[in-house]
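Researcher: We plan to redesign the surface later, but first we want a full-length starting point. Tokens attached.
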């Protein structure tokens, strides 16, 4: 019978860890960020090219479907601890977008996209994205970058959960944010084991 040995936390050397150290260096991190950013910048460019124009009444029926969500970067940025404010600036149904701005102007990296029926309470407590953001922040620091994170809310999201989740899934397919479970396999985050 095989026995599993569990090291004593108080006598084991500090370097003893059950998880292997991830091979993250500035070049690997920057290459990962660049891959994600290139995809997202293409989407921003396509969205700008498809801005709503003026159509004749009869052309409306054949006009291509437009993205109901505006460019997320045009939404007001807020600190990730917005929920600690005495009066949160948003309430009700919303889609929210978590960005990293550490790559400089016009290089905003959309990390996570979510939906909620209660924008003023969604970020309180446990949230998977918080663990990814913590690991990402640690990776940035280890590689000499400074995290500059923000969250933005689109408060015109449908109040119906089903409709809101449908819009959320459309946005995830469009932007491919790396911390959303639907996209993790594609981007293979280099700073987290899972």
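Model: Full-length starting sequence:
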């Amino acid at each position: 019978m095989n026995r599993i040995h569990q090291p004593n936390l108080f006598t084991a050397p500090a370097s003893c860890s059950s998880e292997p150290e991830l091979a993250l260096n500035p070049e690997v991190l920057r290459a990962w960020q660049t891959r994600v950013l290139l995809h997202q910048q293409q989407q921003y460019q396509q969205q700008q090219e498809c801005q709503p124009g003026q159509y004749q009444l009869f052309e409306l029926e054949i006009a291509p479907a437009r993205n109901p969500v505006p460019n997320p970067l045009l939404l007001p940025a807020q600190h990730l601890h917005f929920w600690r404010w005495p009066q949160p600036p948003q309430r009700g149904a919303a889609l929210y977008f978590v960005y990293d701005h550490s790559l400089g102007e016009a290089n905003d990296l959309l990390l996570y996209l979510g939906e909620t029926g209660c924008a003023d309470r969604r970020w309180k407590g446990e949230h998977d994205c918080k663990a990814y953001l913590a690991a990402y922040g640690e990776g940035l620091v280890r590689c000499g970058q400074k995290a500059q994170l923000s969250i933005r809310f689109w408060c015109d999201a449908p109040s119906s959960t089903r409709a809101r989740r449908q819009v959320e899934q459309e946005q995830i397919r469009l932007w491919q944010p790396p911390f959303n479970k639907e996209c993790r396999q594609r981007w293979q985050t280099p700073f987290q084991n899972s």
